[in-house]
Write a structure and sequence with these properties.
The complex is a heterodimer of chains A (106) and B (394).
Chain A: E1 2-6, E2 15-20, E3 23-30, E4 33-38, E5 52-54, E6 57-59, E7 66-68, E8 74-76, E9 85-91, E10 94-102
Antiparallel strand pairs in A: 1-10, 2-3, 3-4, 4-9, 5-6, 6-7, 7-8, 9-10
Chain B: E1 6-10, H1 14-25, E2 31-36, H2 51-54, H3 59-62, H4 67-72, E3 75-79, E4 85-87, E5 92-95, E6 98-101, E7 104-107, E8 111-113, E9 125-126, H5 131-140, E10 146-150, H6 154-165, E11 169-174, H7 181-198, E12 202-205, E13 209-213, E14 220-223, E15 228-230, E16 233-236, E17 240-242, E18 258-260, E19 271-273, E20 278-280, E21 289-290, H8 294-310, E22 322-327, E23 330-336, E24 343-350, E25 355-362, E26 365-372, H9 375-381
Helix pairs in contact in B: 1-8
The chains are: A mainly beta (106), B alpha/beta (394).
Chain lengths: 106, 394
């Protein structure tokens, strides 16, 4: 688990790009939960943290691909490959991300 | 699928593929035929002037779909097949000696580069629309090769940028005093044009071209002032024209594209036009306009299909027109539609710094937004734009 930001620093509907190791990750605060997905769109190089958040879906700011924050699945083209949605924990007010576990892992 | 209704989609690029997806998404369970002139399954064209041209993106990377998806969509693929005619009243698509008669026809044959016949033609002169064009241009671009690009629009500018990364020596000739001044206005057009000089490209504005120079292959291009610019390779990138010659005599109204209502419906029931070919009476422009943007080909078909299947009553409003361009490492984004009388106001950053957002205003109405390397704010403002007028139906 890598602590990435204080939960209070990311308001509802906000997103931020963080880099864990060399890996860009987008942290979202959506519908009362924190989510962590690959920041780079699988279609072409774009930062999903700069995208448009609608519920638990984020739309890529460049070419309108949509991903579900909960699963990383593509919900609208042109992207064809999912991003990964990572395991997130909140403790002592800090949001931490585990790049070795996906969100759906038990 | 046998029996039931048939839909024929003519044109197998982004607009055609998006149409097929929309038909199935919206519950059309009849036969779907996708006719495409090129032998390939649909692929993405924007990389043809960028990553595919430089060799960074593979063919697999720019594929828009694959056999698994097309099989799941249950689409009868007719690639490498050119539609030669159309009888709108019968909804009959003519393919040489054959015909496909359908209940629904969606026209999506797109556009092709505008020719400059006055220049003549010689080996070494290129235009860019498809995979073959991009591959031919890539093969011609080597370090030190002198590339002259006619037209400093988005294609010309992106190729200039790509050619620099391949080591070519690039000159861009632009007829207008300010490149991209029609979509962007003089102020923002000037800012974007400054990227050329900053990256070692010789941009010459207010320059007309007269003729190609060379015998067996091009060696230069003569300008209207009779001076000659030496060239090993020439790219003519002066806009696009809709591919409508196959629709002459079809019964549809053809006038710089196929005239449609705000949804893409033509005057003939059961026939729609989408993508570059459609000249849409949309809410963003005063006059019906062809929208050549990639996003229009991605998003427009779902609205046209909804209107075809269920009438225009419940079709969601169109989003503001949107395009982007990647040049010299900068991402330029634009949404909405600018009229010449709109006023530009920078709302974030500084054009001099290489990262800024500006809006275009028509009185109280924000008509458009442009950003360079500032997609977060752009993404927000893009959704607050107000169209010129309400949508009108056919």
């Amino acid at each position: 688990m890598v602590p990435v930001l204080a939960a209070d620093d990311l308001g509802p509907g906000e997103a931020r790009r963080v880099v864990i190791g060399a890996h860009p990750v987008a942290i979202f605060h959506a519908e009362g939960q924190f989510y962590a997905i690959d920041d780079t769109c699988t279609h072409q190089d774009a930062s999903l943290s700069e995208g448009w958040l609608e519920g638990c879906l984020v739309e890529c700011p460049l070419h309108a691909s949509c991903f579900d924050l909960r699963t990383g699945a593509v919900t609208a083209p042109p992207a064809r490959e999912p991003v990964r949605s990572y395991h997130v924990e909140i403790s002592d007010g800090m949001v931490s991300v585990d790049l070795d576990r996906t969100r759906s892992d038990p | 699928v046998t029996g039931g209704p048939t839909a024929v989609v003519v044109g197998a690029s982004l607009a055609g593929l998006s149409t097929v997806r929309a038909l199935r998404d919206q519950g059309f369970d009849g036969r779907v035929v996708l006719v495409g002139e090129e032998p390939h399954a649909p692929y993405d064209r924007p990389p043809l002037s960028k990553g595919y041209l430089t060799g960074v993106d593979s063919l697999a990377k720019i594929a828009l779909t694959d056999d698994t998806e097309l099989d799941a969509l249950d689409v009868d693929r007719r690639f490498g097949t050119r539609a030669t005619g159309f009888r709108a009243a019968d909804r009959a698509v003519v393919i040489g000696a054959d015909e496909l008669v359908a209940d629904l026809v969606v026209l999506a044959t797109g556009s092709r580069p505008r020719p400059l016949p006055a220049l003549g033609t010689l080996p070494g002169v290129h235009q860019l629309r498809n995979l073959t064009d991009s591959e031919a241009l890539r093969a011609a671009l080597r370090p030190g090769v002198r590339l002259v690009i006619v037209g400093a629009g988005f294609i010309g500018s992106e190729v200039a940028s790509s050619a620099r990364t391949l080591g070519a020596d690039v000159t861009v000739l632009e007829l207008l005093d300010v490149p991209l001044s029609v979509p962007l206005g003089d102020q923002i057009g000037t800012i974007c044009a400054s990227l050329h000089a900053a990256n070692g490209v010789d941009l010459r504005t207010g320059v007309g071209v007269k003729a190609l120079v060379g015998k067996e292959r091009v060696t230069g291009i003569e300008l209207t002032d009779s001076s000659v610019v030496d060239a090993d390779v020439v790219l003519v990138a002066v806009g696009a024209v809709p591919v409508t010659e196959w629709l002459v005599g079809s019964g549809l109204t053809i006038d710089n594209g196929v005239l449609t209502d705000a949804f893409g419906l033509t005057s003939v029931p059961g026939v729609a036009a989408v993508g570059d070919i459609a000249r849409v009476a949309g809410p963003w422009t005063v006059e019906p306009t062809r929208v050549e943007h990639w996003t229009n080909a991605l998003e427009g078909p779902a609205r046209a299909v909804a209107a075809l299947l269920n009438g225009p009553g419940d079709v969601p409003a169109a989003r503001a027109p949107y395009f982007w361009s990647d040049q010299y490492g900068a991402t330029i984004q634009f949404a909405g539609h600018r009229e010449p009388t709109d006023v530009v106001r920078v709302v974030e950053g500084d054009p001099e710094s290489g990262s800024f957002v500006a809006v275009y205003e028509d009185g109280d109405r924000t008509s458009a937004v442009v950003a360079v390397n500032a997609s977060r704010t752009f993404t927000q403002l893009r959704r607050r734009l107000v169209p010129h007028h309400a949508e009108v139906t056919a």
